[in-house]
Design brief:
Structural class: alpha+beta
Number of strands: 3
Low-confidence stretches: none
Largest sheet: 3 strands, mixed
Strand order of the largest sheet: 1-2-3
Distance between the termini: 46 Å
Protein name: SUF system Fe-S cluster assembly protein
Domain MIP18 family-like: 13-82
InterPro entries: Fe-S_Maturation_MIP18 (IPR052339), FSCA_dom_sf (IPR034904), MIP18-like (IPR002744), SUF_FeS_clus_asmbl-assoc (IPR014291)
Number of helices: 4
Oligomer: single chain
Helix content: 25-40%
């Protein structure tokens, strides 16, 4: 089944909503606002590819956090399949956080 651009946009918004429910255990801010999600691509068939990073390569949740993201995004209505790529290029830094995240952490 092929989805329209509008349907894909709706799926994308739902995915972002779900990503905002996943938290880095060491920082009380969700992974989306932290800037850990580099890219979300959605095909016409609603196959989703997520490119994300972690705050550090030896992050204690390196095994579980990507799986949690994958599992939660798979639950979004109409999502067909989820491919998650973990990358450390470019490596994450505090400049990638949203204004909201910086405010919550007292950095503004």
């Amino acid at each position: 089944m092929k989805f329209t651009d509008d349907q894909i946009a709706d799926i994308g918004e739902e995915i972002i909503g779900v990503l905002k429910t996943v938290y880095d255990p060491e920082i009380p801010v969700d992974i989306y606002e932290l800037g850990l999600i580099y890219d979300v691509q959605i095909s016409e068939e609603a196959d989703v590819k997520i490119i994300m990073t972690l705050t550090t390569p030896n992050c204690p949740v390196a095994e579980t956090l990507p799986q949690e993201v994958k599992d939660k995004v798979k639950e979004v209505e109409n999502v067909n399949d989820v491919d998650l790529e973990l990358t450390f290029e470019p490596s994450w830094n505090k400049d990638m956080m949203s204004e909201e995240a910086k405010f919550e952490l007292g950095m503004l």
